[in-house]
Specification:
With about 50 residues, the protein is an alpha+beta fold. The protein is about 25% helix and about 50% strand.
Length: about 50
């Protein structure tokens, strides 16, 4: 199962931290696919379910 998610933040680091928290809650790993910077940062990532 793969899922694409996105997050906004004041910096890329803040947006990535939000992505990391979502991935942790869903027991998934993530790979950032895009990031955009301007007045705010926008990051999208692909989640992949961790296998046990």
């Amino acid at each position: 199962m793969a899922e694409t998610i996105s997050a906004w933040g004041g910096t890329v680091s803040e947006a990535e931290a939000k992505i990391a928290n979502i991935a942790k809650e869903k027991n998934s790993s993530y790979e950032i696919t895009t990031s955009r910077m301007g007045n705010y940062s926008y990051v999208t990532a692909k989640l992949t379910e961790n296998r046990k």
